[in-house]
Amino acid sequence: MIFIVFSLYLVFIIYITIGFFRLPKETSMLSDKKEVTVVMAVKNEARNIKKTLNEFFNQTYRNVKFIIVDDNSCDETVSFIKSSELFSTGKLRLLSAIGTGKKQAIQQAILEANTEIILTADADVSYPKTWVFTMVNSYIQSDADLIIGPVKMSRSYPLQCMEYLSIMGITAGSAGNKNPLMCNACSMTFSKEWYNKCDVQLSVPSGDDMFLLESTKKLDGIVHYCNSSDAVVTINGSENIKDFFVQRARWTSKAPHYTDLSIIASGVLVFAMQCLMIGIYIMSFWNPILLIWVLVKYIIDLFILLPTAIKFKKTSVLIYSPFVALYYPVYVVITALLSLIPIKWKN
């Protein structure tokens, strides 16, 4: 059993790593003549919204509009938006949510948009001034139906940093193999027409990104990874352990609704590996030689972690990798159990 699971896991990681190096570089930039819309749902984002709006205002792509849907914020989010420089230019529309939750708010914004090209964003993410330009250029040049943007995490807890490093690698590598397994709603580009064709499963509270990806694949749409440093956005790690586990549990809770076989199979394989590692920990009390498999898995993981860390200039976090590798299986199982508890977006 151990040999079989490790063999499958090795093949999977090698497959992802090959895809990572297959990613084509983005080509030369076009003009900013095409009008585009950035949509975003917010709820109690007073702490982040000023910074995000300033970054939107400073985008080098000038022919861009913004639509923000407020999902019943009870802090100063709305007042900060209305007093922003971007709002005063008339390029930003602020709407009140007519549905419930982030996914319906995003849909509301997209339906209100009057441009062909749509970009999605999150308020708690940092955007470089070249983000819109690079993502739109990638959409036009690739002739894809869905563009996945590169996302990295700012410095945070070792577990968060290492986990997101693996997410970054799998997202890029699977897309490089033309069979994407992950994406992030904080940086995606698509057409309004394509979005209307897709089933984003509005009945499921979260997953506006993954269900769009899954539906795109089901419709034989083209998915392209924007392989440019000019498009890399930065997310913040959770500030405390509680928020961290709540976020991860929310991500995991979407899994039972997936229908894409490659996404399901990869998830099952990774989860099975973590369960096997816990079993190895337990059995090693009677047979310590089994701990050699811990080292084997660590070496396998480095196949994708190392090139990803180099690409996103995150090699410093690899110093934590031996320690994180030891307790990561326990964390995965705990998160899976927590996902059984219903969790709402922003309370």
Summarize it:
It contains 13 helices and ten strands.
Report how far apart the termini are: 42 Å
Summed up, the helix count is 13
Overall SS class: alpha/beta
Overall pLDDT = 90
Strand content: 5-15%
Q: How many domains make up the coordinates?
A: 2
Q: Major sheet, described briefly?
A: 7 strands, mixed
Could you state the oligomeric state of the chains shown? single chain
Query: Low-confidence stretches at least 5 residues in length (pLDDT < 50)?
Result: none
| Structural Rg | 20 Å
CATH superfamily of the largest domain: Spore Coat Polysaccharide Biosynthesis Protein SpsA, Chain A
**What is the highest CATH level, the class of the largest domain?**
Alpha Beta
CATH architecture of the largest domain: Alpha-Beta Complex
Order of helices and strands: HEHEHHEHEEHEEHEHHEEHHHH
Q: Per the principal axes of the C-alpha atoms, what is the gross shape? A: globular
Percent in helix? 40-55%
Number of strands: 10
- Lateral arrangement of strands in the main beta sheet: 3-2-1-4-8-6-9
CATH topology descriptor of the largest domain = Spore Coat Polysaccharide Biosynthesis Protein SpsA, Chain A
List the helices and strands and how they pair.
Blueprint: H1 2-22, E1 36-42, H2 49-57, E2 64-70, H3 77-82, H4 85-88, E3 92-96, H5 102-112, E4 117-121, E5 125-126, H6 131-142, E6 146-148, E7 151-153, H7 158-176, E8 188-191, H8 192-197, H9 210-218, E9 223-225, E10 233-235, H10 241-252, H11 261-283, H12 292-311, H13 321-338
Parallel strand pairs: 1-2, 1-4, 2-3, 6-9, 7-10
Antiparallel strand pairs: 4-8, 5-10, 6-8
